[in-house]
Amino acid sequence: MTALVSRLVRYRTLRLVVVMWIVTLVLDVLLVVPLIVLFELGMLDESQMGGEFLDSLSPLRLFLVALLFAPVVETWIFQLALLLLAKKLTEWFAKSQSWLPALLITSLAFAGLHAGNAENAWSIYGLLHAVARIPAGIALTLLAIVERVREGGYPVLSVILLHSMYNTVPILFIALPE
C-alpha cells in the first residue's frame, strides 16, 4: 500500500483525478454489462433496482443532488471522517501505520451505503448496487489517502471533484430524454 501511494503521489492531482475517473468508469462498464444481459434475459427485474428518488427530481435538482450535494456530504462522511477514524484505530489497535485497513473499511462502507439505492437494500438488488460502487469507493478513498500524504495536497477538494465526475455519467443517462 505504501509503495502504491508513494508512486501515485508523483502524479499531479488533476491528472490523477482524471486517470482514476477513467479507470473507475471502465471497471463500472465491466460490472454493468453482465447485469444488462441478466435484465435482458429476464433473470433480474429492473424495477427492483430502485432509483425512484432520482427519477422524481427535476433535471436541475438531479444535477444539484448528484453533482454537488452527494459528493460533498459523502466525502465528509467517508473519505474524511471514517477514513481518519479507521486510520487512527489501525494505529492504536494494530500498531500499524498502514492505510490498507482504512482503505478497505471506508471503501466497503461507501459501497454499502449505496445498497440503499435499491428498492430493498437487503435484497440481491441492494447487493448489486453495493458491488457496483466498490471501484468508486476504492478510487475515492485511495485519492483521499494520496492527497493526504502529498505535501500540500487537496484531499477533500480532489475527492469531491472525482466524485462529481463519476456521478456525471449515470446522471446524464437519467436526465437525458430517451
Categorize the overall geometry. globular
Q: How would a textbook summarize the main sheet?
A: none
Number of strands: 0
Stretches where pLDDT is under 50 for at least 5 consecutive residues are none
Q: Mean pLDDT across all residues, rounded? A: 93
Provide the helix percentage.
over 70%
Number of helices: 7
Order of helices and strands: HHHHHHH
End-to-end separation in angstroms reads: 43 Å
Task: Tell me what portion of residues adopts beta-strand conformation.
Answer: under 5%
- Total tally of structural domains: 1
Overall SS class:
mainly alpha
Please give the radius of gyration in angstroms. 17 Å
Summarize the structure in words.
This protein is an all-alpha fold and 178 residues long. The chain has one domain. It contains 7 helices and no strands. α2 packs antiparallel against α6, α2 packs parallel to α7 and α6 runs antiparallel to α7. The model has no long low-confidence stretch (mean pLDDT 93).
